[in-house]
Specification:
The protein has 194 residues and is α/β, with parallel strands linked by helices. The protein is built from five helices and seven strands. Strand 4, helix 4 and strand 5 form a beta-alpha-beta unit. The longest helix is centred in the middle third of the chain and has 14 residues. Bound molecules: S-adenosylmethionine.
Length: 194
Amino acid sequence: MDERKYGKLVDFVHMLINQSYSGQSDLHFIDATCGNGFDTLFLCKLAGTKGLVKAFDIQPQAVERTTLLLNSNMEFINYEIILDSHEFIPKYISNNIDAAVFNLGYLPFSDKTVTTKGDITVNAIKNIIPLLKENGKIFITTYITHDTGNEIHDIFKFLSSLDKTNYNVLHINIINKENTPPELFIIEKIKKNA
Ligand SMILES: C[S@@+](CC[C@H](N)C(=O)[O-])C[C@H]1O[C@@H](n2cnc3c(N)ncnc32)[C@H](O)[C@@H]1O
């Protein structure tokens, strides 16, 4: 049995992605906020030798930490780590993608004043949506504390208006915890030529 808890949203996202994509080849993933590299490492392992993961962060420190983690844990190279804002992801992508992961907020064990920002995150999501394959998904784990909920508000506002014929949007909350637990948004594309 998988002992990981749904209530730990980072693990929950990994379980969902694993369930959707495990055993497939030619997987293309994006990590839109690579940070310390844990999500990138997970995606690289799942993508396997025939897949490709592109990971982005605006902080050189995050790119360095992710590079180190991958160098010491991957036996093959199926990734590129890119120092740039997730707003500009389409510049770097030539194939449609299976899934993208955002884990927002600040880089743990670093400068907590450098955080993701609602308007930029929404632009990045808008730019990634057209890159999704049929059944492609975007997972966005969000936090309240870094900006008292402004980013979540911006994301919620944009995603609530997303075309319902072409996309399902889920919003998952942990409702019995104090101290502002994280929230998860999932976008899934349901039509081929959206
Ligand atoms: C919570 S951390 C990510 C954690 C990471 N996924 C992991 O597994 O360790 C959030 C990251 O978003 C990055 N970030 C902030 N604004 C960004 C932007 N516009 N584009 C890409 N990354 C950004 C921060 O530098 C930080 O490293």
